[in-house]
Structure to design on (1392 residues):
């Protein structure tokens, strides 16, 4: 950490800054330049990051040098992590193909969609039972009944399942059904929820918030990791921007940026990132080409009847065509799509 | 609602769109232009807003005409609402002066700060007992002990209190101590939490999320209102932007934009909006000049020792100087600063 | 175009709106809904887009239905355009491989870089003679001397050249040397400059402004097209965002969004979009996978000595490795990389 | 400037960094921390800011400590500058009241508007003769004829004038008519244009670009100042944001942020910042309360007939009401509104 002093900082102020640094057990290193005086801090700066040094009179700017996350950092863990979801590998060369409807709407529809995406090559089934909706008047999900349907459908088709948990009070309930928790974008900084799923040992799919920087995302992963759960998969799903051509802005560079900072796998979700079915295939391929460890795509067999987010779903035959293209691209890049183990998955 | 069809939409597709509209009990009104065909929808469009009309083949664009919120709208409630917090009025010409430290750090410090802000003219006391922190390694708040201190300090100085609740499991606990709930920016779309505070009858200070549009903010207010709690005060506290000169971007126009759409009071929080003490006074005055119903300011008597957000707090004498300026401006604008009633406030 | 009236609009106001529409030679179509009255406009709405209808009392909102650009639109020109730059094709299945240093810095360096990128598979050579620099104290380019060097180097290596023009007064000068004009991001809305290059018949590489929507970009292309120059290639090069992990935010979805609206080719520039050499290869591949008609990459043989933007350049061997990957991906996607014709290119 | 090295930087790499710094005539100061090695640079870092140090192998990050602008900085010039426009003072306690139509549309209309705004208290008259329009099909301005009308109208009403120049080829022409140049937001980084107006000795109103940081704005001012023209007034006019409730996002904090960095006056333009007449008065007052040195407001006597930007203009009586409020606020803040000298202004 580097502390830059204001042009007119007094000797007393400088001495006070050095005192504060040393009182935290660190060494301070004074350097008087022609135009500015700076204090370099030697030692573990983590504790300093919490101290309000900018509030000290005479301080102009505090420049952190080390990243604020540790367990998520690839300095601590240089090899890419491989996260396993009921036998399906994600990361380190393995590609997740997550597909399914936005919301679980009933057993029959779920069965039809699961059969179609399995056939097309998906290796994980998604579906929401609890839905975060902007409007209190919109469809809020089937609740536990939806979890049951999702579990049974996944088992029938040999697909591990992933589903969203929104409320710390429901982590236990969702835990009983799912193979992987999803933390949605709106809850990326719901710290109590992160702590709860961090205390389980189920994998977590952590979606990037709509205005979260990459560092914010990795700090949220750190909440889960620091509770002892090391199975975290990140997900880029679009951020806010000024152009309303698309629902969000798909930040494909987030994939290599994350890989430069962290060992955690990162997948892309072009359905939420763009909100437009015509943009899902090109953005899915872009994500894989940029190095993503998987793609998360919404598929529905009758989008105009979908109870949530119909307009951004692919039809099953569109998904099958895209999955073919992803497989070709994966082969070119030397990536493997992990096949779910051939057994009943329910024994957890 | 207006449904715009694609250039080559077929007659069958158009008929199907009309069927869908009519099946929802609404009237459809076809209009064939030279370049485009449009379908106007007559009736209550609320139910249509949830239907995925954009997913119907042949549909190019769906343009909503009515706002998606109702109870928050000033069409339903043309007069500005006045929210009362233990006798202190906010809105409709009454200005809230909310001040206090970011976090409750101990009884002595709280007492000193409360005494100072009360003397300067504050009419509500703030302090966090549960802190949402980006890092799992940062100070997380005193918990219930902090609530007790805040309650006792408020009572001693005759100031109603406001404090953040982050977790639906703690709404009941916080309810027992506070006069007003605060929902923080990161929880603006924590819908289960909104529902919980909506089921109480305590006023709620709802902060705008960092990437929330004004409509998103009003939809979140709608969650609270639709549960029967009509005492909601909005708060503009800065949004994300590309310029890192300031911590967030203070969107002062949010004040008149909200007032054009909603009857709910709206205050400004220049502390979080800017993150820099030198910018708090000009931005606080800007907010009041733009019509805000109050200002929310962090005050600390030793920012460099603050356990949270020290660098953005004013010192007590800086707050006093600013409060003077706000009072002059309020007088010019014909606004009143409600004085807390002279009685022990604890009897709730 | 649809004109939505305010809830309390009077009959006089409605009649006035209809008058205005009809006075412009269009037909108005009144529709009174339960909650709102709307006026649909039938006919060519282009002239209406310029009329300030929102300023008419009683009008709440004006919703355009048709895109504001015509010549750039794929409604007018459904087939993708192929732009030819001195024999090198871009668009319609042909991929541009534009490479070279940010600035022309001297004949020897230019020669070395051009030789390397030609060998790696580039088919167009770039280099700036006039540099738009944020600081007046930064290197501003070699001027005409730089143009001469670029021309000679391109001819020697059989590579057509592209170079930026910043000033309408220099369009004639740059015209004499270059095969393709580049309009930089900062000049995307320098309308006089667009008009000048529109009056030539040389191809134009039009870069998206840092805060331009896709519609803004297409409107700027329309300026060039409407002067009679139909050879426009668009370029996504990163937009402003709140995350400073990267210099700009690479909007890869801009590629399919543009293709959904326009027949013009669009390429990507991951050098400027990210500002980090480690991110250039993944983002270049992402762009091609998303359907881009080419990639524009800065290459320098000694980045630390570069007079402009050194930190974002690839070394020649890094470019060669990336070009190999792009060629494999292009083959998978069925794209062709046009080879410059084997002749002296100077005869223009 | 501080150069942070990568974790595994070799001794050779470190030595090379130090060599580079010393070869530029500066002193390097090595500091080996527990986790990172840093090199502090002592001396004038301006030349280093242009050197691509980040491109040197082993370098992780380069952190500038000094601002990149000098003449615009308040370190060089601690007192606020007062800019005089034909006798009207701006800055240092003097408030500019700039008003007039978006475009000059004819002598009669201009005369009516000028008379009204003069009466209301405006001290500078604006009007565009050359209009930067997003669409090539929109009204482009009256050209020289418009300049004449503006000049004559200003002289008749005793109001100095300000008008936009968009093209370096027209600086001479506009110079002959105007009292102050305006550089529009889209041309804030049209560096050749900045250089041209910098070479005159007429005051310049420099509008902030829609995606320009405050530092970018000050760097553009530096272009003008470094050519010898010290009469620059900055203008905040809204930046890009994700919320389309308003045309742009009015960044009122830009006013105190600029004042913390620079001695140049800064005014606000709520007309362009919001694009909505109902938001102009609250945002104008907010700007003045935040310390702005003036307000720039579009006024038109028949917005629905305006040839450009009608929907964002105030009517003359609305402007008069707002001007009254601004005057009261200015009196409260101790600001003066400079009165144009009582003489024919044409003698320049």
């Amino acid at each position: 950490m580097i502390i830059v002093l204001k042009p007119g900082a007094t000797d007393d102020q400088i001495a006070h800054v050095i005192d504060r640094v040393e009182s935290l057990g660190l060494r301070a290193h004074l350097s008087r330049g022609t135009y500015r005086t700076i204090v370099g801090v030697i030692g573990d700066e983590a504790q300093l990051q919490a101290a309000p040094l900018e509030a000290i009179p005479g301080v102009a700017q505090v420049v952190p040098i080390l990243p604020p996350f540790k367990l998520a950092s690839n300095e601590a863990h240089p090899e890419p992590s491989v996260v396993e979801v009921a036998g399906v590998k994600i990361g380190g060369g393995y590609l997740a193909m997550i597909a399914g409807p936005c919301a679980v709407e009933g057993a029959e529809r779920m069965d039809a969609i699961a059969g179609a995406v399995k056939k097309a090559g998906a290796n994980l089934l998604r579906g929401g039972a609890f839905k975060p909706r902007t409007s209190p008047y919109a469809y809020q999900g089937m609740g536990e009944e939806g979890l049951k349907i999702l579990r049974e459908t996944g088992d029938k088709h040999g697909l591990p399942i992933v589903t969203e948990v929104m409320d710390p009070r429901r982590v236990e309930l969702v835990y009983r059904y799912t193979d992987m928790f999803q933390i949605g974008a709106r809850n990326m900084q719901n710290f109590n929820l992160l702590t709860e799923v961090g205390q389980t040992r189920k994998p977590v799919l952590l979606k990037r918030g709509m205005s979260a920087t990459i560092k914010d995302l990795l700090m949220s992963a750190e909440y889960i990791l620091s509770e002892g759960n090391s199975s975290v998969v990140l997900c880029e799903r679009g951020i806010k921007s000024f152009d309303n051509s698309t629902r969000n802005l798909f930040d494909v560079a987030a994939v290599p940026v994350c890989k430069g900072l962290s060992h955690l796998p990162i997948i892309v979700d072009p359905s939420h990132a763009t909100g437009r079915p015509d943009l899902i295939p090109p953005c899915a391929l872009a994500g894989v080409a940029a190095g993503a460890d998987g793609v998360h795509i919404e598929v529905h067999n009758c989008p105009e009847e979908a109870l949530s987010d119909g307009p951004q779903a692919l039809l099953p035959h569109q998904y099958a065509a895209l999955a073919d293209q992803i497989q070709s691209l994966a082969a070119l890049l030397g990536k493997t799509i992990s096949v779910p183990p051939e057994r009943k998955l329910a024994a957890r």
About this structure: Chain D has eleven helices and 15 strands. Residues 29 and 62 of chain D are 14 Å apart (CA to CA). Chain D touches chain B at residues 211, 213-215, 239-246, 249-253, 255-257, 260, 273-274, 278-279, 282-283, 285-291, 328-329, 332 (CB under 8 Å).
